[in-house]
Design goal:
By secondary structure, the protein is mainly α. The protein is about 80% helix and about 0% strand.
Length: about 300
């Protein structure tokens, strides 16, 4: 999926909500995508290529960088969002979650060629784990205690489909051609639906009353703190330049649209979350040249 196609589907969602307004129930669309289409997408993605040791290295390094910054973000949030519990939840849930699927995979092809697809897919898997475990916990945390928040995590079908897909892949099972078509159609539908959902919520953003403090703090960590810390982690492990560059790329992509799904599901300011994704996307466009120069400088690619 090209970047132009991604923006096309976002615009379709935007126009759709603007045109029909009260006739569009975005929560119904979110539930359909989250509980039915997203599990299909995850299963389909995790069964595209056989598991290998090489594919396991990059997600481990990715997680190390993520969790180091997660600790920094938590300490930062204690002061930045002292009296705003929901803003703190959104900040912790979304500031480290990048668009590693819809944007990361095609961007990897553009920068590094088709050889990058297995690695970008593996990193997208790692991102999915983070979203459906840690992001769900933070978004649900304000409404539930720790035990109930963990229960909420395991109500998300994506968790179970992830483990099922890994077992399916590990034992080298194969789907028939007909089932392969069904899962492929479902996966692409999930991607399109996710972009349309983002457009629907984007149409409700009001720039003048938008939560700029939240959006800018999230972008600070997503586009500056995380890439810098991630770069040091990658260089510390002395990875092959090709693998290191791909991990770095997946760390600097803008916020994931999937954040809007979870925020909407737990009614945790989905409009403010959408605005944060929007600001992150604009900042990414302006910093893209700096990121590419950094890849050339540190990885020689």
């Amino acid at each position: 999926m090209s970047v132009a196609t991604i923006y096309l589907f976002i615009i379709i969602g935007f126009v759709f909500k603007r045109t029909f307004r009260d006739d569009v129930n975005e929560r119904t669309i979110v539930l359909l995508n989250l509980y039915f289409l997203q599990p299909i997408l995850i299963f389909w993605g995790l069964t595209r290529a056989p598991l290998s040791f090489e594919l396991l290295i990059s997600p481990i390094i990715y997680f190390i960088a993520i969790f180091i910054v997660l600790g920094i973000a938590y300490l930062y949030s204690l002061r930045a969002f002292k009296n705003e519990i929901q803003d703190k939840s959104i900040f912790m849930a979304s500031s480290l979650v990048g668009n590693t699927g819809n944007l990361g995979i095609p961007l990897g092809i553009a920068l590094f060629g088709l050889e990058s697809v297995p690695f970008t897919s593996a990193l997208n898997i790692a991102n999915i784990f983070y979203i459906y475990i840690f992001s769900v916990y933070f978004f649900a945390g304000e409404k539930f205690n720790f035990t109930n928040s963990l229960k909420e995590i395991f109500k998300i079908p994506a968790i179970w489909f992830t483990f099922f897909a890994l077992l399916f892949n590990y034992f080298d099972f194969h789907m028939s051609a007909d089932f392969e078509k069904v899962f492929t159609m479902g996966a692409y539908t999930a991607i399109v639906m996710q972009l349309v959902i983002f457009g629907i919520f984007m149409s409700q953003v009001k720039i003048r009353s938008a939560n700029w403090n939240l959006a800018l703090n999230i972008s600070l960590f997503k586009h500056f703190v995380l890439p810098v810390v991630g770069l040091f982690v990658i260089l510390f492990f002395d990875l092959p330049a090709f693998v290191g560059a791909i991990i770095f790329m997946e760390l600097f992509v803008p916020l994931a649209v999937n954040n809007v799904n979870i925020a909407s599901l737990y009614k945790c300011k989905p409009i403010d979350t959408t605005f944060s994704v929007l600001i992150s996307s604009f900042i990414f466009i302006f910093l893209m040249y700096v990121y590419i120069v950094s890849i050339e400088m540190f990885f020689g690619l």
